Amino acid sequence: MNNKGLLIVLSGFSGAGKGTVVKSLLSNHNTEYCLSISATTRNPRPGEENGREYFFKSVKEFESMIDNNELIEYAKYVNNYYGTPKAYVESQLEAGKNVILEIEIQGALNIKKIYPEAVLIFITPPSAKELENRLRGRNTEDEATILARLSRAYDESEGLSNYDYVVINDKVEDCVERIVGIVSSEKMKINNNIELINKVREELKAYSKGEQ
Known about the structure:
- It is globular and about 75 Å long.
- With 212 residues, the protein is α/β, with parallel strands linked by helices.
- The strands form two sheets. Strands 2-7-1-8-9 form a five-stranded parallel beta sheet, sandwiched between helices. Strands 4-3-6-5 form a four-stranded mixed beta sheet.
- It has a domain at 7-36 and 99-207: Rossmann fold (3-Layer(aba) Sandwich), CATH 3.40.50.300.
- It is built from eight helices and nine strands.
- The chain has helices spanning 18-28, 59-67, 86-94, 105-114, 128-138, 143-157, 172-187, 194-204; strands spanning 7-12, 33-36, 38-40, 54-56, 71-77, 80-85, 98-102, 119-124, 165-168.
- The two termini are 28 Å apart.
């Protein structure tokens, strides 16, 4: 089997529970998965630490990373930059880890252009009302920001056809196992196992007519 890791792009509406799902996935499958930590210019939320949830950057620092081609992708979302540092992702893939990118839809589509083999998964709550309830339940943002995120969610919903899979996050544990199942299936696809196929074919030559 191909030992190289898969690039897994996890997106979802703000408030869909992506962060909780990723934490559970890493906790239960930490030998197979790792998280690519994004850089952002937004302010840390209570309990967040630099280098754990995000690399928190000033606008000047972030724009320097753009100029130096240190990001796989970047985008601006609700007046803040978000981006994916390049070196960490590529080293982890070569080491055999499935690398999770937790990014928004615009960045996900940019990733697919650079890494066509990337698997794009969109996480959604069961309903729009549940999405609103989760946003309000976080108690981290004012009314204007909540409404901006709900408006953005509508715009994002029109791009879902560009994703490979959609996964409902009703119960976190069930959502995690659905994602693990998707990744397992992807790793068994023919185009991810060309070396294995060629090896078996070469070994079988000894049994073909005219080779005995």
